[in-house]
Amino acid sequence: MKSRTGLFVVLGIVVLLFFWGCGSYNGLVGVDQEVKAKWGDVQTNYQRRTDLYSSVIKTISASANFEKSVLTDVVNARAKATSINVDAGDPKSLEAYQQAQAGLQSSFSKLLAVVENYPDIKTTKAFQDFQAQIEGTENRISVSRRDYNTAVQGYNLKVKTFPNAIFAGILGFHEKPFYKSDPGSDKAPDMNFDIK
């Protein structure tokens, strides 16, 4: 009789561990999917920015014949930014993606500086519409990156806290990297206005 009671106790413990493990696994899958969805939002907003940049390049090209090297730099940076495949769980691919996006934004800033010297472009309706859309897109990108980091924080907490850490390690759930700011963005920009 005692061996039978012992068997039921062991069997009961195994069943409890099974259901506890299933619950932990499902919870980890849920937060992993949330991180992937938030990363998809980040990529969607970057794609929106890239599409807008393509539109403004066409608008500017049609409006004026000016410093083609600046326009070429933007086109090349756009091609580089769209060619990178990112794994949100891989810090190196995430960093490469961030660098490509920063390169695109930098080359586009140079293009906008050149446009300042061409008043005909600045007054076109298409260019004015673009300026409003790009401001909204940059805000969307900022919100998406913040939401992604919030999802990563929730995921990492679930993966690293006990007792989930036991199942996370066994089942291959590892800590994910946060989206980081561009190098040097922690320093205030040097604003030097030479107004006379």
Q: What's the story with the biggest beta sheet?
A: none
Radius of gyration: 25 Å
Helix and strand sequence? HHHHHH
Number of helices: 6
Which bin fits the share of residues in helices? over 70%
General shape: rod-shaped
As a percent range, the share of strand residues is under 5%
E-strand count: 0
Q: Span between N and C termini?
A: 100 Å
Structural class, from helix and strand content? Answer: mainly alpha
Unreliably modeled segments: 191-196
Indicate the mean pLDDT. 79
Helix/strand layout:
Layout: H1 2-63, H2 68-83, H3 91-115, H4 119-122, H5 125-160, H6 164-171
Helix pairs in contact: 1-2, 1-3, 1-5, 1-6, 2-3
Give a structural overview.
This protein has 196 residues and is mainly alpha-helical. The protein has six helices and no strands. It has helices spanning 2-63, 68-83, 91-115, 119-122, 125-160, 164-171. The longest helix is centred in the first third of the chain and has 62 residues, at 2-63. The chain is rod-shaped and about 95 Å long. The model is unreliable at 191-196 (pLDDT under 50).
